[in-house]
Amino acid sequence: MRSSLILVSLLVACGGGQNDTLVTDPTDTAGDTDEVVERHLAGDPEVASAATPVTVACEENADELCNALDDDCDGVIDEGCGYETGPVQITMAWNTDADLDLYVVDPGEETVSFQRREGATGARIDQIARGACAPESEAAEQNERVENVHWTRVPPAGEYRVEVHYLFECDTDAGPTTATVSMAVAGEIVGSYNLTLTPTQRETVVRFALE
Ligand SMILES: [Ca+2]
Ligand SMILES: [Ca+2]
Question: Which ligand is nearest the CA of 81, by number?
């Protein structure tokens, strides 16, 4: 590549701009524009000490419930529930009528949540719910205790963070509420965790890195 760059520079310096063509080096197989088609988890996720791994095992051909768990072991969380998967999928469900919110922070510190629904790196929240504090959409009416974020294209390498915020009890005396969070990367479930929060509490559930 270096020789190509030098050649292009020489052409420009010699006023050869009229017939400029992109000069490429056929031996440069590690070109800067090569697409990385898939990312993978780098190392083990770092899970909050207060979180506990979900111990219910999935079962092939089981009914897929809208519960933030991959019930049928196919690597997709809650397929058929009206929200989507992708190279990264992060789904949260909770067990009271409180209003909980899912926040996913990408390596560039951009956060996707109900407040910012699409990120520059391809993140999208396509299921937003508020428990008993008024449904967000028709999908939310069906799944009032589930939020889902997925990437619509190859996500960047680096560190990701998943946070959960207990926003309101919604006049339901919901009290302590357990959030279940699952993550899928490149079509494989990399973890499912339970974390119990009290009103207004915000916690990082898990951090993970992609390479
Ligand atoms: Ca599934
Ligand atoms: Ca499920």
Answer: 2
